[in-house]
Design goal:
The structure is a single chain. The protein is an alpha/beta fold. The strands form four sheets. The chain has a six-stranded parallel beta sheet, sandwiched between helices. Strands 12-11-13-16-15-17 form a six-stranded mixed beta sheet, sandwiched between helices. The chain has a four-stranded parallel beta sheet with strand order 3-2-1-4. Helix 1 packs parallel to helix 3, helix 1 runs parallel beside helix 6 and helix 4 packs parallel to helix 7. The longest helix has 17 residues. The protein is globular and about 65 Å long. The relative contact order is 0.09.
């Protein structure tokens, strides 16, 4: 059956429609799915899921624009999905075209105005521009169509154009985005670009509640001074203040999985503190990626979900002491997976070893079996190997842990001191190790909020 999806409204509406149409096409491979607008954007996809053009049955999506409470997804894309893919029960991000050729020459961009949401005075936006340039940016490029007013000092307007593909290309290569609630904000969410968004207090800001996206939302009615303070916090938290991102700088990230909001605030604070001290990005993965059977298997998608060269992964039921040294300098070899030996009972290890031998003909070395609650990995050595592990989900006692051990033992593994992953610790009042990991400890709900991780 041939279907043509269409909507009304702004560019943001059409980008959401395209993403929803692609999700529908994945689930209905026998249908021919067309989109009735933005042919130049639709043509950028190379997988054939959707096509530009019209014909067949017309499907009008979200024509009323305000379907907030009909969607359990709780973002603007969700208002399109609820009509055509109702089985989706968790928030999704937009699926926009990728531009792999733009791996270098990253820029900072600003969209000065929103076309549909209320805008603050020009002096408010000028204050943000001045603060950004003061804190680290040598150049800030405006994006938008050619009618965009050119009334901000210190902004480069050379990228303004009426091409939507060019807008997406520019957003995708940004290291930071400053924007009102706009199509640029939706695009920044799709590409995972750290974003500072200024918004009115009009009840519509749920539009931007996309998962796995680092953003700071500021209500501009609070005033210019408060906006500047908020922008400064954003720049510091995203490692932009004081320097320009460059490809020569190794991109590192501290990552945890927080699907189902299981992360305790005490643990989160220790993670954020560590990321700040280690000068790396902090990321929480809050949605199960397509294809992952359980949250634990999300580790097999780490480098798909996080734009980093190296990742320090830590389970959500852990706490990091605030004098813990930087693991990226302590353990520098990119080819090696670093982890701590697991103290699990020998009988259980033998069962896993027997399963590995029976199903994969692999001899698992139980003496080098590690706990996967703390891992140090690199994109260059491990991204492709993690991709292979997606084929062996399920059937293991410890879910992701045994597949990860099989991967590491086939390649290069280094067991690091146990103080980097102290499993089932006893004393919450004084941390004796760098990392306390409660590893499904039944008492963790009462203990994690009270671990005293501030040692110095």
């Amino acid at each position: 059956m041939k279907l043509t999806f269409e909507t009304v409204g702004s560019l943001g509406d059409w980008l959401c429609l395209i993403s929803a149409a692609r999700e529908y096409a994945r689930r209905h491979p026998m249908d021919e799915v067309c989109v009735a607008n933005l042919d130049d954007v639709v043509s950028l996809y190379r997988d054939g899921l959707i096509k530009p053009g019209r014909g067949g049955r017309r499907v009008a999506i979200n024509a009323e624009h305000r379907e907030k409470y009909f969607s359990v997804r709780r973002n603007y894309l969700g208002t399109f999905l609820w009509e055509i893919v109702p089985q989706i029960k968790h928030p999704l991000n937009l699926d926009l075209p990728k531009f792999p050729e733009l791996s270098k020459d990253r820029i900072a961009i600003i969209q000065p105005r929103s076309r549909f949401a209320e805008n603050p005075p020009v002096s408010y936006v000028q204050g943000l521009v001045n603060e950004f340039l003061k804190c680290g940016g040598t150049r800030l490029f405006a994006v938008g169509d050619l009618s965009t007013p050119r009334d901000l000092e210190g902004v480069d307007y050379s990228l303004l154009c009426d091409s939507v593909p060019e807008l997406l290309r520019n957003v995708s290569r940004a290291y930071a985005v400053l924007t009102p609630r706009s199509a640029t904000a939706h695009a920044a969410a799709a590409y995972g670009i750290p974003t500072f968004a200024w918004v009115p207090d009009d009840g519509e800001n749920w539009h931007l509640d996309y998962p796995n996206w680092q953003r700071f939302i500021h209500y501009f009615k609070l005033g210019r001074a408060d906006g500047i303070d908020s922008l400064r916090c954003f720049l510091e938290s995203t490692r932009i203040a004081g320097r320009i991102e460059s490809e020569a700088t190794e991109k590192t990230a501290l990552v945890t999985i927080n699907i189902g909001n299981v992360l305790k605030e005490n643990a989160r604070e220790s993670f954020i503190d560590s990321a700040r001290r280690w000068n790396c990005e902090y990321r929480e993965i809050t949605a199960l990626p397509p294809g992952a059977e359980l949250p634990a298997y999300t580790k097999f998608w780490l480098f798909d979900l996080v734009d980093a060269d190296r990742i320090f992964y830590i389970d959500a039921d852990a706490v990091i002491r605030n004098d813990t040294p930087n693991p990226f300098t302590e353990f520098p070899d990119l080819e090696t997976l670093y982890a701590v030996k697991d103290p699990c009972p020998f009988d259980n290890l033998q069962l896993e070893a027997e399963r590995a031998q029976a199903s994969l003909a692999f001899s698992l070395d139980v003496d080098r079996y590690f706990n996967s609650g703390v891992l140090i990995l690199s994109r260059s050595a491990h991204a492709a190997l993690l991709l292979e592990l997606r084929e062996i989900q399920g059937g293991w006692i410890w879910w992701d842990q045994t597949p990860l051990n099989i991967m590491a033992q086939r390649h290069k593994l280094s067991l690091i001191p146990p103080e980097w992953n102290d499993v089932w610790p006893a004393d919450v009042n004084e941390m004796a190790s760098f990392i306390y990991h409660y590893a499904a400890n039944p008492g963790r709900e009462s203990q994690l909020p009270h671990v005293k991780w501030r040692k110095v």
